[in-house]
């Protein structure tokens, strides 16, 4: 097939490393929204030296934060740790390879599965952000590998490895707990490795320590937030039938099947549809009754069925109760579905030459060539990977503004690179008590400004210039990310504190960035008015400039606040 020796695994791992390193190396801006919160939480934890055990702000166990804080305590900024962390997720090719080689007993199928998985859209996206989920794919694959080994052999070493890795996986990311719970229930039903009693004993030896080690901590850490997040949170504006009735259940059942069927294909995107059809072909290839299937294949089928049941159950629950999360559920679950689907797709590719020869050998003499037969899966794999890579880009692959392997910003960026460099200049050169003025930045994005600059940011929403003073409604964002709405009086003829002004920033908001309308101009009329006024003030100097952003130092400007 595509590979036949282990050194090819190193090539796939190197390729995955290059893909994951592309964005963090070439751009200093963290693209996704969630990692910004982890930067703030880590800084607050390091500053305070203590952490709320309930951790209600995120709903995650603090294990991930402890890890980031440990690295940051060595002198590395938490922002940089989170920024480069996705590179580590490229290691997921190793446990995927080990697991698939154990299941299919084919290094070619194993390494092709790893390649198709790490280039697939949802797996790539969710593993390319600095959150616990980025590590969960690697940890979960290792857990499944050692769990399979413990079922196949009678070695306690594998059972210990499986129990330890299962515990770590659960404590790093909450969603893996639900995945493992459904999978462990289904595995004895769909996949038998020995006598059922022996299989249950092996699973019990692995699961019991994981439950004991992580269950107590989970109860204190995140039980409340998890319940709030997945079972009681309502989605504003989402209208669905509430209450349980026979007609309502029938309606929700049909609606859920449709949503996870045809509608989910558009959610997955065209590249995952290709992979899904190949995976379906692989299931047909191995499509004997479950009892006649190879036991390792049953293991993989049980995992895939568990993910499918989990997606359907959550979808059904949301549609019956009117709760939130339908799109998010598919997004999370599908990132884990990619691996088993890619595995069956690789199995189908391994048998592609025989299938094609059977149908085409009488019409095309060339397919009888051995070289041609070997080239078939290679060509198909390359084409699928190219399609996958073009779909890596979540936003631009849909908008038609580029293809993923040339421009792989898979999330909308809330800051531009030029904006980041201007804020970084303030961070590195301005006194700690400095105030940084800007214009028209919404409160949510202002938190990113404060996170990068570590200075008090003041966003001017509107103003009135009476000649001597500027009276403005402002949003203040402190370095601790505490915001306040006030009215400010800005004067330019006195001796103020250390005040800076960032001019020419392209304001990117979550609304404008995801729409089709053009971005706002670099300078609004209000911003230009302030620039002219500040340039005319005494001692004003431009201390930094790039293609988009200018930073002015305003030694004679002062600002006073009154409550709005």
Written overview of the protein:
With 564 residues, the protein is α+β, with helices and mostly antiparallel strands. It folds into 2 domains: 7-399, no CATH class; 417-563, no CATH class. The chain is built from 23 helices and 8 strands. It has an 8-stranded mixed beta sheet, sandwiched between helices. A hairpin with a 4-residue loop joins strand 6 and strand 7 (550-553). The model is unreliable at 220-244, 359-364, 394-407 and 506-522 (pLDDT under 50).
Structure keywords:
564 residues, alpha+beta
Question: How far from one another are the termini?
Answer: 69 Å
Task: Please give the radius of gyration in angstroms.
Answer: 27 Å
Mean of all residue-level pLDDT scores: 75
In this structure, how is the largest beta sheet organized?
8 strands, mixed
- Which structural class fits the helix and strand makeup? alpha+beta
Quick one: how many beta strands? Answer: 8
- Unreliably modeled segments: 220-244, 359-364, 394-407, 506-522
Which percent range describes the beta-strand content? 5-15%
Shape: elongated
**What is the domain tally?**
2
- What level of helicity do the residues show? 55-70%
């Amino acid at each position: 097939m595509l590979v036949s020796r282990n050194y090819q695994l190193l090539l796939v791992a190197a390729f995955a490393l290059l893909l994951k390193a592309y964005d963090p190396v070439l751009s200093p801006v963290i693209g996704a929204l969630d990692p910004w919160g982890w930067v703030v939480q880590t800084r607050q934890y390091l500053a305070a030296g203590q952490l709320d055990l309930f951790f209600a702000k995120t709903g995650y166990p603090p294990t991930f934060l402890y890890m980031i804080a440990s690295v940051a305590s060595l002198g590395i900024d938490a922002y940089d740790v989170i920024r480069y962390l996705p590179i580590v997720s490229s290691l997921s090719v190793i446990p995927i390879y080990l697991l698939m080689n154990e299941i299919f007993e084919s290094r070619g199928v194993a390494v092709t599965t790893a390649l198709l998985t790490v280039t697939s859209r949802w797996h790539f996206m969710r593993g390319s952000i600095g959150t616990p989920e980025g590590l969960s794919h690697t940890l979960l694959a290792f857990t499944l590998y050692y769990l399979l080994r413990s079922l196949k052999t009678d070695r306690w070493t594998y059972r210990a490895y499986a129990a330890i890795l299962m515990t770590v996986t659960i404590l790093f990311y909450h969603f893996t707990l639900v995945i493992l719970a459904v999978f462990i229930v289904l595995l004895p039903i769909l996949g038998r490795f020995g006598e059922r009693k022996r299989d249950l004993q092996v699973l019990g030896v692995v699961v019991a320590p994981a439950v004991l080690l992580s269950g107590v901590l989970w109860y204190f850490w995140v039980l409340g937030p998890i319940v709030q997040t997945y079972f009681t949170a309502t989605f504003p504006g989402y209208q669905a039938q509430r209450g349980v009735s026979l007609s309502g259940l029938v309606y929700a059942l049909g609606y859920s099947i449709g949503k996870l069927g045809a509608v989910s294909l558009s959610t997955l995107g065209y590249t995952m549809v290709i992979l899904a059809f190949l995976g379906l072909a692989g299931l047909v290839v191995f499509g004997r009754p479950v009892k006649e299937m190879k036991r390792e294949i049953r293991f993989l089928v049980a995992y895939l069925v568990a993910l499918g049941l989990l997606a359907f159950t959550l979808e059904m629950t949301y549609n019956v109760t009117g709760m939130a999360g339908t799109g998010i559920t598919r997004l999370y679950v599908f990132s884990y579905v990619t691996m088993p689907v890619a595995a069956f797709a690789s199995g189908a590719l391994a048998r592609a030459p025989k299938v094609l020869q059977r149908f085409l050998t009488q019409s095309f003499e060339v397919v009888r060539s051995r070289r041609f037969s070997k080239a078939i899966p290679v060509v198909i794999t390359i084409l699928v990977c190219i399609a996958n890579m073009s779909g890596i880009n979540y936003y631009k692959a849909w908008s038609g503004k580029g293809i993923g392997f040339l421009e792989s910003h898979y999330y909308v960026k809330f800051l531009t690179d030029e904006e980041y460099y201007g804020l970084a200049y303030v961070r590195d050169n301005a006194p700690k008590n400095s105030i940084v003025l800007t214009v028209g930045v919404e409160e949510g994005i202002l938190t990113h400004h404060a996170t990068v600059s570590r200075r008090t940011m003041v966003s001017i929403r509107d103003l009135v210039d009476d000649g001597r003073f500027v009276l403005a409604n402002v949003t203040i964002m402190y370095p601790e990310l505490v915001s306040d709405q006030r009215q400010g009086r800005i004067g330019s003829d006195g001796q103020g504190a250390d005040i800076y002004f960032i001019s020419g920033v392209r304001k990117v908001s979550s609304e404008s960035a995801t729409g089709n309308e053009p971005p706002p101009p670099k300078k609004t009329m209000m911003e230009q008015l302030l620039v002219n006024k500040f340039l005319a003030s005494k001692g004003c100097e431009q201390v930094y400039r790039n293609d988009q952003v200018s930073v002015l130092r305003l030694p004679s400007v002062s600002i006073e606040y009154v409550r709005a």
